[in-house]
Task: inverse folding
């Protein structure tokens, strides 16, 4: 187990190293030596700022020294400095990450509950009306682009209600420190947007894997022992059926923590994804670099956690 | 079968888009000013006998623009999926067949591609290269192949040890011959299934990029861009500008998803056997 984990972590480090090389090639080498300091300093930078950027990032040194300096800063947890914002990339991300986190955690709870419950119901009542309804709904939301659902919810629950004098949901994000109840109300529509779109995958996954598991011999044994159907479903089947669901969950959360780009843009929530899209508009390269590295790291870590979890559940995995 | 029929209709709409323009007498980029295509305040007009699905922020016919927008969605959806599957198949074949260092390098590269946030990378690339149809195809197709590559690699790993590959090798067949003549036909099922499942994914990816403003440049009609534009007239109650392009997009992805599920079931009736 320890050897498996060490090997996975080592592979993760290699992927992260590849990512730093990729980022370095795209942003520090790609534009050509003359334009790099300008690009990193931002659109409206003065010559002094450009000179400062060159000095700080050692852009006048050979490429391998620049790369080493870049990685050295990263290893010390320094993601760079955004001249556009006039603050470090770390603090830009520190202020946007909690917003993404509160969006993803809330949505994740909703989508797991909706997805797993509807998947179990579908599998237990396979080929009934309920099953067809849930699989149909799952396919519908699976095909639904996130921004379409988000905008439709905004149109119905914000604009139509507001026109009729009901101010139930704010249109933009309200920070928790400003008003806890406003924060909660401003998150309900984004939560459901992200959750409904994601839940569909979980319904399909849970249903499929429950159907597989329920054909196993040990389920017949459990039934033959005279256990109640509820116990057979939740204690014996669901537990085994959840493995692929947990894998999917780990990867989804990993990806979304790097920015739920579309949901954040639709609801103007200044989370990581929204900040990144804005930075692309503002050509604020240091922030883009920071987001790409942090978001990729989240995916790499999520992959390792999922693999480790898998190995604990299924000893066969460790052999490969 | 319903899904196949719907896809047929969507294809017809794409081909016959000029017929929509001719029948209504409205060009896809033709602007109608107040009072014909806009209200006196310059806001879009709702559905009427003259404009069946209403007009947009510039007084253009939404029906005609949706019909033309079908073309971009289908072209990017189908061709980007094919590019993804082609790259994924070749890389997967090479990684699975050669093994060793080649496999390690290619597998880590696929991990790398899967770890980088797709939308951010796509937006950055489009911003750097500049928007356009070919760029969209390259970005959506060129970034989406890693999943396919992994699956083909897994299949090839098990096929490589089969007797008929051994037989081909002992007959003196070279690696390229074995890969493309002996192994490729045996992974054609997942290739076909993945192509059909990737089409709706590519359509959504294209629409999302257009929605974020890095798709086909205006005034070319595009569903994602229309939906993004509709946000500006929400407060005037112009629901039709959001609802109709959204419906077109949703019907298309739904039809292709149902079709893709059908293709998968046809190749793999027991479920789960194809992608071990």
Result:
């Amino acid at each position: 187990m320890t050897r498996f984990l060490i090997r996975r972590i080592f592979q993760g480090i290699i992927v992260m190293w590849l990512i730093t090389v990729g980022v370095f090639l795209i942003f520090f080498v790609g534009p050509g030596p003359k334009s790099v300091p300008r690009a990193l300093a931002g659109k409206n930078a003065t010559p002094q700022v450009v000179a400062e950027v060159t000095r700080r990032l050692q852009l006048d040194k050979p490429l391998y020294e620049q790369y080493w300096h870049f990685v050295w800063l990263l290893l010390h947890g320094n993601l760079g400095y955004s001249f556009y914002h006039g603050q470090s990339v770390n603090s830009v991300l520190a202020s946007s990450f909690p917003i993404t986190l509160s969006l993803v955690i809330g949505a994740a709870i909703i989508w797991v509950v909706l997805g797993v419950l509807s998947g179990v119901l579908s599998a237990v009542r396979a080929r009934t009306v309920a099953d067809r309804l849930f699989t149909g709904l799952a396919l519908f939301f699976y095909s639904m682009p996130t921004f379409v659902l988000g905008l439709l919810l905004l149109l119905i629950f914000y604009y139509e209600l507001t026109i009729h004098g009901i101010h139930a949901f704010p249109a933009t994000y309200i920070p928790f420190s400003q008003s806890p109840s406003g924060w909660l109300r401003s998150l309900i529509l984004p939560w459901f947007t992200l959750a409904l779109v994601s839940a569909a995958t979980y319904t399909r996954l849970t249903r499929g894997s429950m159907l597989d598991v329920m054909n196993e011999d040990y389920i017949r044994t459990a039934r033959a022992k005279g256990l109640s159907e509820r116990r057979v479903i939740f204690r014996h089947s669901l537990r085994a059926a959840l493995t692929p669901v947990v894998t999917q969950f780990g990867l989804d959360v990993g990806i979304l923590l790097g920015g739920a780009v579309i949901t954040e843009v639709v609801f103007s929530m200044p989370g990581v994804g929204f900040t990144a899209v804005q930075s692309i508009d503002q050509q604020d390269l240091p922030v883009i670099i920071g987001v790409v590295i942090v978001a990729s790291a989240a995916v790499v870590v999520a992959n390792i956690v999922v693999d480790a979890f898998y190995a604990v559940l299924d000893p066969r995995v460790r052999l490969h | 079968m319903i899904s196949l029929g719907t896809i047929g209709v969507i294809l017809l709409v794409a081909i016959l888009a000029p017929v929509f323009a001719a029948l209504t007498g409205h060009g896809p980029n033709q602007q109608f000013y107040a009072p014909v295509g806009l209200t006196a305040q310059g806001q879009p007009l709702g559905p009427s006998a003259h404009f069946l699905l209403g007009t947009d922020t510039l007084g253009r016919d939404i029906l005609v623009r949706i019909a033309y927008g079908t073309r971009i969605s289908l072209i990017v959806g189908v061709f980007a999926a094919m590019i993804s599957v082609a790259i994924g198949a070749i890389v997967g074949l090479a990684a699975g067949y050669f093994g060793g260092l080649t496999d390690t390098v290619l597998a880590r590269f696929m991990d790398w591609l899967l770890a980088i946030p797709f939308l951010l990378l796509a937006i950055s690339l489009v911003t750097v290269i500049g928007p356009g149809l070919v760029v969209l195809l390259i970005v959506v197709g060129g970034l989406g192949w890693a999943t396919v590559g992994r699956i083909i690699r897994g299949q090839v790993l098990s096929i490589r040890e089969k007797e008929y590959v051994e037989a081909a090798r002992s007959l003196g067949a070279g690696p390229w011959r074995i890969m493309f003549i002996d192994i490729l036909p045996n992974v054609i099922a997942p290739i076909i299934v993945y192509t059909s499942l990737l089409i709706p994914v590519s359509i959504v990816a294209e629409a999302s990029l257009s929605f974020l403003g890095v798709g086909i440049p205006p005034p070319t009609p595009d569903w994602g861009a229309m939906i993004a534009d509709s946000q500006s007239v929400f407060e005037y109650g112009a629901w039709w500008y959001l609802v109709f392009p959204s419906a077109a997009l949703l019907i298309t992805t739904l039809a292709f998803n149902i079709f893709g599920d059908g293709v998968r079931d046809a190749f793999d009736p027991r479920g789960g056997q194809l992608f071990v």
